[in-house]
Amino acid sequence: MATLAGQVVIITGGSKGIGKATALRVARDGAKVVIQYHSDDQGAQEVVDTIGEENALAVKGNAASVTDSEELIRRTLEKFGQIDVLIANAGTLPYKDLASTSEEDFQACVDLNVKGPYFLVQKAVPHLRPGARIILVSTTLCHASTVNPRYLLYLTTKGAVEQMVRVLSKELGPKEISINAIAPGPTDTALFSKGMNPAVLAAVKNLIPRGRLGTPEEVAEAMAFFSSPASGWVSGQILRVNGGMA
């Protein structure tokens, strides 16, 4: 069933991982898809080739840059004439506790995980019609009872994302625009597993009742729900997609 037929979906960080899986998933529901990507030219082209150039567009840019966000919106409107769903998926996952965080680390993480989504939403909202959807990305670790201290910097920014969702649902509600967030648990992506040794990875899997990491495709199913008309009366919510971890 083409539940997103005629809809235009923007996804940042759309050339790999959860972003790529989401792009392909919403395309199967009939959406036209615009992905923003930072450096993975091959991955971005694979997404466009799979969906088809008539229904997909890849825009290279930095999700932390307000100028690049404006260009992303401009290119989307130029090709498809509208924006119906905005998914701010791009992010960074630093492994930094209090002692190991530099000012540069802090600024880079805040820029990509908070500033990027904040101003992307700001620039997009004037172009969104009633019924539009905005989806941000948090993390299950904001809600887990046991947390590695080295996730301090990362969770500082994701806590901010969750407050953006809570408050913006009140501001955007009168415009009939919904905003929610997906909070994935540990997911089998390059971003998550980069630099992680096998012993730590095994320990992470043991925290999940099903004994494995989630897949990008499983998270993409939740993204598709929040993109669809079925989520019309849901706003200001954080959906944990984690196999029962928390």
From TrEMBL:
| GO MF annotations, alphabetized | oxidoreductase activity, acting on CH-OH group of donors
Q: Which SUPFAM superfamilies match?
A: NAD(P)-binding Rossmann-fold domains
Q: Specify whether Oxidoreductase is a keyword of the entry.
A: yes
Q: The organism sits in which domain of life?
A: Eukaryota
Q: Which UniProt keywords apply?
A: NADP, Oxidoreductase
The family line of this record is: Belongs to the short-chain dehydrogenases/reductases (SDR) family.
Q: By its UniProt entry, which PANTHER family does this protein fall under?
A: NADPH-DEPENDENT ALDEHYDE REDUCTASE-LIKE PROTEIN, CHLOROPLASTIC-RELATED (PTHR48107), RE15974P (PTHR48107:SF7)
Could you identify this protein by its name? NAD(P)-binding protein
